[in-house]
Amino acid sequence: MRYLDEFSDPDLARKLLDQIHAATTRPWAMMEVCGGQTHSIIRHGIDQLLPKGVEMIHGPGCPVCVTPLEIIDKALAIAAQPGVIFCSFGDMLRVPGSSQDLFGIKSGGGDVRVVYSPLDALTIARENPDRQVVFFGIGFETTAPANAMTVYQAKRLGVPNFSLLVSHVLVPPAIAAIMESPRCRVQAFLAAGHVCSVMGTGEYPALAEKYRVPIVVTGFEPLDILEGIRRTVVQLEAGRHVLENAYPRAVRDEGNLPAKAMLEDVFEVTDRTWRGIGMIPKSGWRLSAKYRDFDAELRFAVTDIHTEESPLCRSGEVLQGLLKPHECAAFGKQCTPRNPLGATMVSSEGACAAYYAYRRLELVQIR
Amino acid sequence: MTAGLDFENWTCPLPLRDTPQVVMGHGGGGAMSAELVEHLFRPGYGAAGADTELGDSAVVPVGAGRIAFSTDSFVVKPMFFPGGSIGDLAVNGTVNDLAMSGATPLYLSAAFILQEGTPLAEIGRIAEAMGAAAGAAGVRLVTGDTKVVDTGSGDGVYVTTSGVGVVPDGVEIGPRRAAIGDAVLISGAIGVHGVAVMSCREGLEFGTTIASDTAPLHGLVAAMLATGADLHTLRDPTRGGVAAALNEIAHAAGIGVEVVERDLPIPAEVRDACSLLGLDPLQVANEGKLLAFVPADRADEVLAAMRAHRYGSGARRIGTCVPEHPGMVVARTALGGTRVVNLPLGEQLPRIC
Q: Is 0.90 exceeded by the ipTM?
């Protein structure tokens, strides 16, 4: 992974910063869509080094954060059932549902396991034919291909005791929903590089045109992010609004064609509720009719679990860029990583958690 | 079968050779327990466990000075990993806890909780590792205990070691002594042990050439003390990593700690594995490394002494104690920004993407 170092080079970063400072004549507000980018920006202190007027608004691209409370509660209900092995990526274990989290289920005797790939869950299912094995399939277009592959393999290999609790969400409808919001302040987007490495860039030119916003496909290392910001500023200053790909080493225009074919086969577009934001039409994926037998929601009859979110938590406004995490009255008080009210405080990619983790110093000084 | 342990030709009248695994009787305090000690632990410990009387307690000479006393439990999974085993950790962990107060470690106790069904050969390997580690550290294993729990009530082998050592007069090392202006030193590469263990954890096997850095550190501490510098604080940054250790010291001493990211010795393999898993190298566990807080005007001298020692050859200065932000650790990023270095909350959770 030697190439990662080259994309963190401080001297090159300084040059890009100089170019951004030189190009900026007015204040601009741009949104980085992906939580991985938010984490990188805060961790490396990139936002502290930008021109004063250039504001980074942290978008809704953290899969842990936008997974609705209701799905978490369904996961908890399934995981608590005897005979179930509930498999998940690690950072979902601490996301609070209405009453507890998956760690709580585990300590109460539930068989909750951290896996590093959904295919590991399928292996567990084949090794435990008398148990029901469920994988918690959440995330954006990035995690979807592996989940699709797992369900495809489950069907092909005939693994009837495997199922997927699925809550996939899609980036382009979220960008449209943000731009349609009457309080929207976003003037440009850094699009999520890894989403585009799967899906390609075809969905974005129309968005850039319709909402008259520059969209720059951006990577995750410090130099990637600075280059994305530089290109965005240049477009904004010139009054242009087109799609640009600043992450060509990972993103081709057509995306990953085999992955897209798999997604097309296994999933179908559906309306999705986003935690803190609400329902966005046609903003997610569910299993297509052909694979519906592997849908954990149907298998475990949890479709009528409905839950409301904490009224104190303003993560929806944070996710839409209307509020900075520390401007929330609950930030660092009722809401901390140890006792998170909302998912943005849970995942290390969540904007609130990133602020809490890395920015307490200046927040203390401000207060 | 482990070299040095002759399971085939035991002379004990009880047919232990017929049970290659731990059974409940091994913890019963009767003949089988005694046999386990005589034929497994004693040969495994070798010279480090020789001449120990099997009384209810060990009686040992300590000489002049104050006694340092420490205890630690080991539940590592997997029990064997590149560069070591739970046995090495159980000895070196307690040896190092003693060394961090400036003590010369002398004697250890070792208590085992074994799960029924665990292969005796594995326990033999662990005992041998403990004997070798104790020999290398110059400490003796003088007392111990073994209990057995039912299948399903434990997980292989749990080891608890306690140790005593002697702190020479005039040596005062502790977390509260860290002072504004102190240089913060580390004895070598960060995150190596944690990545070595993770690399062979079930479901996460990834290829790496990295091996655990477990090692006894009291020799290194002695070399540092021999410079005559007033060592304020020492800490081995094990669980929770450098981040937890620095935060605990900042909190205890009521000072701020500033570290410079560029100066952190993080090997490429550790950085890559952490990038892959979404972990912060500063929060990854270390063994065989220590952090030292020393007066800045003696820092170069102490560093030179550390570098001359086999367990300190990669020693570097990574930061400074500052009056700002008391109780908080702040890193200056390579790009020139700053970030707070946090006390890890609980378990490290690999990120989703």
A: no
